[in-house]
Design a protein that fits this description.
By secondary structure, this protein is an all-alpha fold. The chain is about 55% helix and about 0% strand.
């Protein structure tokens, strides 16, 4: 099994992404980055591919859309995890 310095926080991010029904641009680029990082780790890669499929994307379709997102000028900046109810948090689209 491969080990990465970000493995613990990445798995936390994956769990958050797995709870997303309608992904934002930020969700998509985050999943795409994780797919690229864990491409050779079969267990994590399979989990990420399942997540992309759940969003109606193949990994290659997701990467193409993320490329278009980046080319359109999107930059995620510092996005903090929002806690609380929908009325007191803001989601980045």
């Amino acid at each position: 099994m491969m080990t990465f310095a970000q493995r613990g926080t990445d798995h936390d991010k994956i769990e958050l992404l797995e709870a997303v029904d309608t992904p934002t641009k930020h969700d998509k680029v985050q999943l795409c980055a994780l797919l690229m990082r864990y491409g050779e780790d079969q267990e994590t890669s399979a989990r990420l591919c399942d997540l992309a499929t759940g969003w109606d994307y193949s990994p290659s379709m997701l990467m193409q859309e993320c490329r278009e997102i980046w080319l359109s000028g999107y930059r995620p900046g510092q996005v903090a995890v929002a806690y609380g109810s929908g009325s007191d948090t803001e989601a980045e689209s």
